[in-house]
Amino acid sequence: MDSKIVKWGVLGTADIARGCTIPGMQQAENCELYAIAGRNIDKANAFKDAFGFQKAYGDYESLLNDPEVQAVYIPLPNHLHYEWIMKAIDAGKNVLCEKPMAPSAKEAAELYAAAKKKGVVLMEAFAYLHSPYVAALKEVIDKGTIGDILYIESAFLTANHDMSNIRMYKEYYGGGMYDLGCYCTSLITWLLGKVPVDVKGVAEFSKEGIDLNAAVIMKYDGDVRASFNCGMIFDAEQSRRFDRLYIHGTKGDIKSDVEYNQSGDLKFNVCADGKTEVKSIQAPHNYMLEVTQLGKCILDNEKPHISEEFSIMNAKTLDMALEAIGY
Q1: Which residues are within 8 A (CB) of 216 and not within 5 positions of it... i.e. 6 or more apart?
Q2: CA 255 to CA 179: how far, in whole Å?
Q3: Per residue of the chain (327 residues), what is the pLDDT tens digit?
Q4: 234 pairs with which residues across the strands?
């Protein structure tokens, strides 16, 4: 076994695995696409043939029982995250799980406690937070270019879905807040590094009880505020989305419409001292970055970029937002 390669197993054949994470894994130099598991062997074999996995399994348990698998990526629906993270940890596997990792901060803390006890790495899959674009935003803020942050505004809206989509059912932790709002809360939490002291919100709900469109305002200590809007409301046929970030500081502002998880030549505007500077950042495949980083945690004892402390803070913020809108 190459000591600088991690053998990965993918637990599920979801669209995000096919379109985003597995292509990122193919680019990660320390990743070996070893095994893929699906609910039926035909679908797993199709992924095996398409992406070059060495093994395919028709159930998730068989993959976890494979002693060659060192790390597991979990792209399953939200309501299955806790169960299969725990099973993967019990099997001694390192875990990268799609966001939100758990439906509440309490359950996220339970997962981290189990990972610590077993001595494995657990990381939540916020791929965009690995991007040099986010690092560049943080650098401008940390340098004091816009002064102290007083207000952050974020938005993430996408097309709506028909009832064949699992996002449309409350029993599966569907809705815009879990699917999209967690991006907004995570970026705000990443930039502020704390949990709000007060949260208020309003939402439009479907008859099935999931939030289709939500607006949330948050108050932090130090007279700092943030707000975000998330929703699944655009025409499904056009498959459009809307992403926005605005950061207001005591000395200036940052404005961006870069999409979450976007790669390529990315730009944001820094408005300070009466002038506007355009920052340009070259961002590689975000999903490649997160897979590479978790591999380094396993191989080189790096600390997870998406830390337990951060994920718990974000989960607490999401808990407060969900309660505020009456989810």
Answers
A1: 181, 199, 200, 201, 227, 228, 229, 321, 324, 325
A2: 23
A3: 456 999 999 999 999 999 999 999 999 999 999 999 999 999 999 999 999 999 999 999 999 999 999 999 999 999 999 999 999 999 999 999 999 999 999 999 999 999 999 999 999 999 999 999 999 999 999 999 999 999 999 999 999 999 999 999 999 999 999 999 999 999 999 999 999 999 999 999 999 999 999 999 999 999 999 999 999 999 988 889 999 999 999 999 999 999 999 999 999 999 999 999 999 999 999 999 999 999 999 999 999 999 999 999 999 999 999 999 999
A4: 159
Q: Which of 7, 48, 99, 316 is catalytic?
A: 99
Give dist(CA 214, CA 217) in Å, integer: 10
DSSP one-letter string for 231-255: EEEE-TTTT--EEEEEEEESSEEEE
Q: Is 62 exposed, middle or buried (0-12, 13-18, 19+ CB in 10 A)?
A: middle
Distance CA 319, CA 317 (A): 5
Cα–Cα distance for residue pair 185/187, rounded to 1 Å: 6
Side-chain half-sphere of 7: how many Cα atoms within 13 Å? 16
Alpha-carbon span 114 to 117, nearest angstrom:
5
R_g (Cα) of the chain, nearest Å:
20
Distance CA 313, CA 105 (A): 8
Q: Which residue carries 């705000």 as its tokens?
A: 188
**142-145: Cβ within 8 A, 24+ apart:** 144/251, 145/251, 145/252, 145/270, 145/272
Other C-beta atoms closer than 10 Å to the C-beta of 279 total 16
Query: What value, to the nearest 5°, has the Cα angle with vertex 264 and ends 134 and 194?
Result: 10
Kindly report the pTM of this predicted structure. Answer: 0.96
143 labelled catalytic: no
